[in-house]
Specification:
Layout lengths: L2 E12 L2 E12 L3 E5 L6 H8 L7 E6 L8 H4 L2 E4 L11 H11 L5 H11 L12 H15 L3 E5 L7 H17 L3 E6 L2 H4 L5 E6 L2 E7 H5 L2 E7 H8 L3 E8 L2 E7 L4 H9 L3 E3 L3 H7 L30 H6 L5
Parallel strand pairs: 3-7, 3-8, 5-6, 6-7
Antiparallel strand pairs: 1-2, 1-4, 8-9, 10-12, 10-13, 11-12
Length: 325
Amino acid sequence: MTAVIETRGLTRSYRGQTALDDVTLDIEQGVITGLLGRNGAGKTTLMSLITAQDRPSSGTVRVNGREPFERAEAIEQMCFVRDNQRYPDDYKLKHAIRAAAICYPNWSQPLADRLIELFRIPTKPIIKKFSRGQLSALGIVLGLASRSPITFFDEPYLGLDATARHIFYDELLADYAEHPRTIILSTHLIDEMDRLLERVIVLDRGRVLRHADVEELRGGAYQLAGKAAAIDGFAGGRTVLSRRAIGGLATVVVEGRLTAEDRAAAAEAGLDVSTVSLQELVAAYGLGDTASEGDPGAHASQRGTGRGGQPAAAEHDMHSERSAS
C-alpha cells in the first residue's frame, strides 16, 4: 500500500525532555490506524508534528511526499481534532460550522447537519458553555464532515456517554465505507474501538513499540493461566510480556505464535491457553505509569522476559490552523 505519511528519525524535545524519540513510520493511505499508548507516550506530539502544529527537534515528516510545515497544499488535506480544542469566546455552533465549511474543501453540510441532530448539540449557547461531551461531539462533527483525506482524532470521545460513543463509531465506519480516507485515532478505549482499527501504532516514552496490522498483533501473543510453578516451567526461555500472580496461581501474556506442540505441552502442564484482546496486549507491552502529555518522559516502563501501556478566530486563522479543527 502507498504510504501517505512518512516519518524518519522524528524527535521532539521540550526543555531537555524528549516527548518523541527517533520515530520512523510509514502510515498507509486509506487505512484506519489506532495510535495507542498511555498518557505521556507521545501520541499528541506525533500528531501535532505531522499536521504542522509543531516543528521537530530533528528528523523529518512528509505528507504525500512533501514536508507539511507552511505548505497550504499539504495542510488543507488534513484535519486534526484535538482533545482540548479551543474556540473563540463568542463562537456558537453555527460559527464553527461556517468556518469549517469555508476551509475544508470536501466539507459535507448534510453529514454535519445529521450528526448535529444525532448528538443533540445545542445551537443557542456559546461553545464556551458546552459540556465536555458536547465539545467532543462538536469535534467529531468537524472531523467527520470535513471528509479530509487525512483525519486525526485525539481522544475524541471524552465526556460522551456509551450511546454517543457508539453513534461516533457507527457513523465513522459508515462514512469511511462511502468516502475512504486515512484516519488516525488516538485512544485509550481500545476494546470499544477494536472493530474500527485495521492497524495500530503502540507508543511508549516517545518510541514506537509496535506498528502492525491488528490481526498480526493479536496473532503474535497468547495468554496462559494456571499454577504459577507450571507457568514458570512452560514460559522459561520465552518472552513474557506481563505476569500477574495471586497466591499459587498466575496469568502471563507470552509473545510469539502458539504451535500445536506448545498447545499440547500447555495442556499436559494443566494450563489454560487463550487469545489476548487488543486492550490486554497493549497493556502487556509495558506502557508504564500514567503521566501527562505535557510532562514528556515523566514515566517509566519495563519489558522483557519475566516482566509481569480549531476552528480559529477568523477564516484566516482557520486556514492557517486547519489541522487543529
